[in-house]
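Deliverable D5.2: sample structural annotation.
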Amino acid sequence: MRPTTPSAALPVDLSEARRVAVEAAEAAGALLSARVDGPLGVRPKGAGGDVVTELDTAAEDLIVGRLRAAYPGHRIIAEESGILDGAPGEEMVWLVDPLDGTNNVAIGMPVYAVGLALCARAEPVLGVVHDPVSGRTWSAVRGRGALGPEGPLTLADRPRPGRERNPLLAWTQGHQVGAGDPVAFAMRSALELRCARMLQLWAPLVAWTMLARGDIDGIVGYLPEIVDLPAGMLVAAEAGAELRRLDGAPYELGIDRPASELGFVAARPELLGRLLETTAKIDPKGGRASLTR
């Protein structure tokens, strides 16, 4: 996925939409920060080991209320509420992840984020990620670059010292991926042999901002959750990261695509080819790969 200006004029001012989304994300972050250390009602969500708390729903209600007030006709796809219809024929759709990292919060680990993305005709055009722990916010408009807490955000020309041949990576996978999934096991194992460290944060939006800042050098996603992608992916891409499908084909993110088409490699441009040499060797039917350097 390469950052490009949307192909057709949009019925929304993206600068204003960015302001609305940033304020909503930061308000939700303040809510989470104020309540995260209190008692949490944690309950299972689905059969894949995911959980949900009252913080998820409280933050989501706050965000949805603000989006509805600003854009009453837009559709909304929210992590907990599902699809909230807008005006008939509306092509603008918000994706809301009110608490990315619920499993971390449930065990007292302060690694989580709030993410909002605005999509036009299923294509992300605006992304906002807020980290309540640090109080920092990152955002991007497609084709206009990324912004961080200190202004424009662009990847440095070179990775950090010592990481040219030993990159620091992050791994993400969907909750439907079982512990014995042969493809996930083979791909993780092959990548771990070729990097200094692989992070599994349980909060993909945090990893996307780390990539955009240069804190890590790449992310690999296998059958990822759609709500975890547009906001952070757009920030990283606009900062200079490049993305491909796991087999090396061009990556086109659309919220209407199935999980089987959403697997990705995202990395610094000079690292992308090396990672694809590894991921493209994996047989998606059998999980076979060469695990030697």
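Annotation notes: Helices lie at 14-35, 54-70, 102-106, 182-192, 204-213, 230-239, 269-279. Residues 14-35 form the longest helix (22 residues).
The annotation will be released with the project's public dataset once the embargo ends.
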